[in-house]
């Protein structure tokens, strides 16, 4: 069964990998434009935060973005190749030595900052 799914997903994934969506890394500060439908209108809502984890699974790849809003940490999981994601803009690249940045959940303020990658 898995061979059949991979056979269908591979050409679609190759076509989508040419976009900048696959170039985001853990520790990057990103601005993600999400398309939102309200009734018969659609609009783009931006979500800005730090990528703390990435789950690579072909077309089902996801990233978890964390931001602090009014002193409360908010995490949101985005499907990387979803048609609802209009754009992903990398604002800053962070220098990290871990694959998952779960330790940032316990940090606040300046302690939650990452060094810039040069």
UniProtKB/TrEMBL annotation:
Signal peptide: none
A single MF term (Gene Ontology): structural constituent of ribosome
Official protein name in the record: Large ribosomal subunit protein bL19c
Keyword set includes Plastid: yes
A GO biological-process term: translation
Subcellular location: Plastid, Chloroplast
UniProt similarity note: Belongs to the bacterial ribosomal protein bL19 family.
Record's GO cellular component terms: chloroplast; cytosolic large ribosomal subunit
């Amino acid at each position: 069964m898995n061979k059949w799914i991979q056979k269908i997903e591979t050409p679609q994934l190759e076509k989508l990998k040419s976009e900048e969506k696959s170039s985001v890394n853990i520790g990057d500060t990103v601005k993600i434009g999400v398309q939102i439908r309200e009734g018969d209108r659609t609009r783009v809502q931006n979500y800005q935060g730090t990528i703390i984890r990435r789950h690579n699974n072909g077309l089902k790849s996801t990233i978890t973005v964390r931001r602090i809003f009014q002193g409360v940490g908010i995490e949101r999981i985005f499907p990387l190749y979803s048609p609802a994601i209009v754009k992903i803009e990398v604002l800053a690249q962070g220098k990290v030595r871990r694959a998952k940045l779960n330790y940032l959940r316990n940090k606040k303020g300046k302690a939650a900052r990452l060094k810039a990658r040069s």
